[in-house]
């Protein structure tokens, strides 16, 4: 069994990493619950279907980042120049992947929906297109946050960035949801990613 003292040490080291992972999940789950209070069951069904396609693309970033992170982490903040070059290289790889995802979801939204969900979901095609805009933004925030900030051991700053981004995006979601319905969710995610990117860049700039 793990001793209480050892458990406390592990918790102190990993608490911010846990927050970085859980904050966006909490934000998205609360957003979905809020959405269910404002839209009818048919619209909610459209959203759940489209969200599954979006998440299928979004979850692909995780394995790519996990494969790349050990190399970034091995450099850490000991050689900031080499780290920066490596991050820039990975940045363009991830952004390219994100742009490919965007093009696929934007140009082939009707086709994917028809094959994966059925033609009854086609009225929600525009929602998937807007979700497509989120994908390259997520690629950018992933590289800057999970790769760069974490390699610099700025876990707390990154967790704070996620919290602020989630809070602002959710407040704006509340102001949009009654007018825009299910489209307000991907719009709020775009806002979330933009704020996250801006705050991360500020943190990086202040630590140069």
Total helical segments: 8
Mean of residue pLDDT values? 87
The count of β-strands is: 0
The rounded distance between the terminal residues' Cα atoms is: 42 Å
Q: Unreliable runs, pLDDT <50, ≥5 residues?
A: none
Overall body shape: globular
From the alpha carbons, calculate the radius of gyration and give it in angstroms.
19 Å
Main beta-sheet strand count, sense and barrel state: none
Beta-strand residue percentage: under 5%
Structural class: mainly alpha
List the secondary-structure elements in sequence, H or E: HHHHHHHH
Structural features, described:
This protein is globular. It is an all-alpha fold and 208 residues long. Helix 4 (80-107) packs antiparallel against helix 6. The termini are far apart. The chain contains eight helices and no strands. Helix content is 87%, strand content 0%.
Keywords:
208 residues, mainly alpha
How does the SSE layout of this entry go?
Elements: H1 4-38, H2 41-58, H3 61-75, H4 80-107, H5 109-116, H6 125-151, H7 155-180, H8 184-206
Quick structural overview:
With 208 residues, this protein is mainly α. The chain is built from eight helices and no strands. The relative contact order is 0.15.
